[in-house]
Write a structure and sequence with these properties.
With 194 residues, the chain is mainly α. The chain has helices at residues 4-19, 29-49, 55-80, 84-106, 111-173, 177-191. Helix 2 runs antiparallel to helix 3, helix 3 runs antiparallel to helix 4 and helix 5 (111-173) runs antiparallel to helix 6 (177-191). The chain is elongated, with a radius of gyration of 30 Å.
């Protein structure tokens, strides 16, 4: 019978394998559909390979195949449409895949060790989902703050130009006729119209 620490190490190794992400470059619709078919075929092959196992070993194998498929589909979706929402879904898929495998591994245990194992797996999933939510909300907040900062900087720059123009125009008022007209035209050209 396997102990809880070794189960956690196994789950961590599975998580590392599942978390290996592909490059997140946008892909064409044709490549998207081809990749989706490839992922489905890979899942079918992996699931069929699980038939050589029996009992809980088979259940673990199937959970690994399902997890790998769901993560691959989430990675594909994020590559096809890279948004905060698809990135969130990718993180959740990774957590759920790890949880699915860990939960099946817990079935090798009984009594309190099994209960502890299941609770640890659920806690890890909850942590993953919470971290994904924080990451998405933080990115959304940062994007909104960046837009607001850009607007504030633009407004401040306009205010500075207007103030500098008023100074230049005031200096022009000390001049007479043609010199004043030339000075005012230069001020408008340099600082823009009000």
């Amino acid at each position: 019978m396997t102990t809880t620490p070794s189960l956690l190490r196994s789950a961590a190794m599975v998580a590392c394998l599942l978390l290996a992400s592909t490059a997140m470059a946008q892909i064409s619709p044709t490549d998207y559909n081809a990749s989706k078919s490839r992922i489905k075929n890979d899942y079918d092959s992996a699931k069929k390979a699980c038939d050589s196992y029996s009992g809980n070993a088979r259940d673990i194998c199937v959970a690994q195949a399902k997890g790998k498929e769901s993560v691959a589909l989430a990675e594909l979706e994020h590559s096809y449409q890279p948004t905060l929402k698809t990135q969130y879904k990718l993180h959740v898929a990774q957590g759920e895949a790890t949880y699915g495998v860990a939960k099946q591994q817990c079935d090798d245990l009984s009594g309190n060790p099994k209960s502890v194992c299941v609770k640890e797996a659920k806690a890890a999933l909850t942590t993953t989902k919470a971290d994904a939510t924080i990451q998405m909300k933080t990115a959304q907040t940062n994007a909104a703050a960046n837009r607001e900062n850009l607007e504030l900087r633009s407004d401040a720059a306009a205010d500075k130009r207007a103030a500098e123009r008023k100074v230049a125009e005031q200096k022009c008022d000390a001049l007479a006729s043609t010199a004043k007209d030339t000075c005012m035209a230069d001020a408008k050209a340099k600082f823009g119209k009000q």
